[in-house]
Amino acid sequence: MDVYGLIGNPVEHSLSPPLHEAAYEELGIDARYVTFEPAPDAVGKAIDGAAALGVSGLNVTIPFKRDVVEHVRTDDLAERIGAVNTIDFDPGTNGGNDATSDDARSRSDDTRPRPRGYNTDAAGVQRAFAHHDVALADTDALVVGAGGAGRAAAFALADAGARVHIANRTAERARSLAEAVPDATGGGLDTLPDRVPAADVLVNATSVGMESDETPVGADLLHADLAVLDAVYSPIETRLLREAAAAGATTIDGAWMLLFQGVEAFEIWTGRDAPVDAMNEALRAELE
């Protein structure tokens, strides 16, 4: 039996176990997906322990996505984003991308084989838009938020050929991220009135709308030529998505991003096409 899992703190409410176990059941794979909650300062020991126990792969969630970078050999995308959410303990045999950045190689200065680290959040963004027939190349894209989800979204959109603007409550943080993303610009939330009407694609990468019926973007700015992805998946239909739909925009709820980051991880680990429909059904059953 292969063992996969999730490390984070906390992890008790994670939706990853039913998501991945639905895939194993659908394809008849003898595997289990379990959760681990190491102490905040023990992520390196947790990764070493998982390797020693023969764990095949791990997902990584808060607060470890950035800390894990020091304990794996990152591929180029994860290195640029500066965060890892998927670890493959058997790279090169399951179909994962084997490219490794020079910086990541420089950290591998001991003789221990290090697992490979990826960031599938970016693929989650790209594949969510593709699933809804939204082309990203040569579009004007706006990312609201410059945290972890914002970083992944900004790189995903830029790598897909979009012109990216990042708007964040702290303008300096947006500008700092924009310096790392090819041809991106950044600014404060005061740039939204100019940027949203001209945008083709909008990603809310903040938590606004999760705890209350609020939106990071005013309804008067939304328009029918916009495709809106809200990274918030609980609730499934946020105020931003309701108001975007009312304006005639294409709307994509956050469960699609969550689904496709998991799909990408599954495919890295197994080298097989993920059963997307079965995984989506299991995820949405948990969110009902």
Structural account:
The chain has helices at 16-27, 43-52, 76-81, 102-107, 121-131, 148-159, 171-180, 192-195, 239-246, 254-270, 276-287, and strands at 2-7, 31-36, 57-60, 73-74, 86-88, 116-118, 140-144, 163-168, 185-188, 201-204, 227-230, 250-252. The protein is α/β, with parallel strands linked by helices. The protein has a 6-stranded mixed β-sheet with strand order 2-1-3-5-6-4. Strands 9-8-7-10-11-12 form a 6-stranded parallel β-sheet, with helices on both faces. Strand 11 (227-230), helix 9 (239-246) and strand 12 form a beta-alpha-beta unit. Helix 1 packs antiparallel against helix 11 (276-287) and helix 10 crosses helix 11. The relative contact order is 0.14. Residues 100-110 have low confidence and may be disordered.
Class per helix and strand makeup: alpha/beta
Gross morphology is: globular
Number of helices: 11
**What gyration radius follows from the Cα positions, in whole Å?**
19 Å
Give the helix level as a range of percent: 25-40%
According to DSSP, the number of beta strands is 12
* Sequence stretches where pLDDT stays below 50 over 5 or more residues: 100-110
Order of helices and strands: EHEHEEHEHEHEHEHEHEEHEHH
Mean pLDDT over all positions: 93
- Span between termini: 31 Å
What is the topology, as strand order, of the major beta sheet? Answer: 2-1-3-5-6-4
Largest sheet: 6 strands, mixed
β-strand percent reads 15-25%
